[in-house]
Amino acid sequence: MIKRRTLFLWISAAVVLIAGGIVAGFMASAPPRAVFKDEDGTKFTFKTEGDHFMRYDRDGNWKEMFVKGVNLGATVPGHFPGELPATEEDYLRWFKEINEMGANVIRVYTVHQPVFYSALAKYNQDKGHDPLYFMQGIWSPEEELIASQDAYSGQIEEQFKAEIRKAVAAVYGDISVPEKQGASSGEYKTNAGQYLMAWHIGTEWDPGMVKNTNKTHSDVPAYKGEYFSGTQDASPFENWLAELLDYAAGQEKQYGWEHPVTFTNWVTTDVLSHPGEPLFEEDMVSVDARHVRPTGWKGGYFAAYHVYPYYPDFFRTDGSLQTIKDKQGNFNTYKAYLRQLKAKFKDMPIMVTEYGVPSSVGVSHFGAGGRDQGGHNEQEQGEIDASLTRDIYDEGYAGAILFMWQDEWFKKTWNTMPFEIPADRRAYWINVLTNEKMFGVLGMLPGKENQVIIDGKLSEWDGLPQDEVQHWQGQVPGIRDMRITHDEGYLYLGIELEKDFDPKTTKLYIGADTIPGGNQPSKNQLPGRKLEGGALEALIEIGKDEESQVKIASDYDFHARLYGKEGYWMLPETKPEQDPPFHPWKLAISLQMSPPDTRFAHPFIDKTIGMLKRGTTDRSKAQFDSLTSWQYSGNIIEMRIPWMLLGFSDPSSLQVIDYSPLKQGKAFSTVTTDGIRLIPWLVQKGETKASWPGQASDTLDIRNIKPYTWKPWDTVHYSEQLKQSYYAMQKVYSELK
């Protein structure tokens, strides 16, 4: 009897194990106790009620919550999004840091590799009733939508539904996805459904596509679904969305859960009118979440917007938003916009699921009150991100999900895109002039940033491998030595003078020659001397703080060539005799436009971004500034120069912009350089000749200067660093309940 019972138990155990293997995707771990079950057994953790987002707590009560989150990408430096290289170790480390920042949710835009879901379940094993949740985004066929300008055309809807099926099954650990270039794949076996907060469907909608879809399909009837329907006021595009939300709900219902659902929206297709916006397409058409309604979905529904304080331009040009002032007396047009938008959504929750500013040298849009897209150090980034978060909270929104967790090297920005060539190598270097790369509160720092500290001291240079540091071979009266090294972000220079540096009486110049061509410095810049056998593409000037900068040769100036008479002709023409040999290094901020292309005249705006900030990159010092470019101490001058300021379009393959005329489409060409010939010299105030490598000679043949060069790289070195902005967000999240 005992033996038979033992055998029975072993057989039963085996059956359970086999069954467990079959349904592993559904039972990866026991559901948390704080789960509400409907009469039909459907499970809920979150729902919406009125304009509130609700969570079911351990005491069996539904309580309002403010969603505090961060957007998470799937890449690391050296990779593009479709490569999905993040490992379990990466995810577990990030989850811990995100949780400790005070976030209660991660938003992902698309389906990650299976390791994301298994790592999240693993991280949450010991979290009990307070796990880290995620909001699952479902990517729309964005390129096809833009190309066709019609949401109902071709196979777009079926492609979207296929992605929905994949996403739902992946979340519940119930799909095997064959490998496909640029997409997630693998065996999804972990049921992460209990850690899901909401579905976030689609991408930012192209206004032209929305308008054309509505026009082409004006006779489309209101969609009536089992879970979501379009209202009588729904446009054809909104009915298309209603069907997709309904389809997503139906897919999830199969797994016995209901979660809140939303679709992605942004300011460009909001429900407000913006008379102060100059561009028609930025106020052309609305996509209204109120025109889609849950008809049988108890999990609920909410509106989601991406809202940045600098885009579109009406944040600084629309007088109707100039109604609320901040403590400094500036108009807080972001808060005013949030208030106007929230007033349209009185009966449903609304979240801002993307917002923030980057910590970059480069700038691409100006925002009101200094909330620009770029040009901020980490501290300023944190202060602005925290203030935006408070604005969202104070205006009664249901949640705020910051953009972004980590820096993303593969990203591009409109005003540096023309200069990053070849485009398919963007991920192999960090261009700090491209602000989109640096939205993260987790910095992805280039290889030597933590090894070479810019502080006017060179002791750490001694610890670098000898083959990674080159001593400049020439001789300059007043300069004992110049060391050179580089990484994925910068060219580093460590200069030892014969006596202490005094910027009031002395200027240090370093000319950079990369290819044939270039300009001669002016008589003030290089008094009594002349270069032969070549000239300079860039000129580094180190002196007083307001003087220190990188300038670009006027004949080489990308900015002037693209926006001057050779290109779009938005810059005033300068007579040759009035044009200095070197220009300030500038980026375009806003293009010149006028009616009938725009509602009203829109001037060309640019900004000098070649100024070099003096400070320290030593994070242990109170004076730390992430935008530091140089520092001096006694007779030592130390600096790091962003690659693009020296003309590089891709340092990883030694590509520089060349001098050839713009190609069709206003495109630049590149050429491979054999390196950088660096020519340093000193100019003393009041003296008629510079101290330079030519010694007493008045001429110097550049061809005799040995170039600093390196081997092309395909593997990048980087380190992760929590930015100052991380701690600013940690503070504000801890204060918002």
Keywords summarizing the entry:
737 residues; alpha/beta; eight-stranded parallel sheet; six-stranded mixed sheet; 12 helices; 37 strands; 20% helix; elongated
Descriptive account of the structure:
- With 737 residues, the chain is α/β, with parallel strands linked by helices.
- It contains twelve helices and 37 strands.
- The strands form eleven sheets. It has an eight-stranded parallel beta sheet with strand order 13-11-8-7-6-17-16-15. Strands 19-20-21-31-30-29 form a six-stranded mixed beta sheet, with no helix packed on it. Strands 26-25-24-22-35 form a five-stranded antiparallel beta sheet, with no helix packed on it.
- A hairpin with a 2-residue loop joins strand 30 (628-633) and strand 31.
- Helix 5 (156-171) packs parallel to helix 7.
- The N and C termini lie far apart (61 Å).
- The model is unreliable at 1-32 (pLDDT under 50).
Q: Which of globular, elongated, flat, extended, rod-shaped describes the shape?
A: elongated
Largest sheet: 8 strands, parallel
Helix content: 10-25%
Would you tell me the structural class of the helices and strands? alpha/beta
Alpha plus pi helix count: 12
Low-confidence stretches: 1-32
For the largest beta sheet, what order do the strands appear in spatially? 13-11-8-7-6-17-16-15
Q: What integer value in Å does the Rg equal?
A: 29 Å
Amino- and carboxy-terminal Cα gap? 61 Å
- Strand content of the residues, in percent? 15-25%
Count of DSSP E strands?
Answer: 37
Mean pLDDT: 94
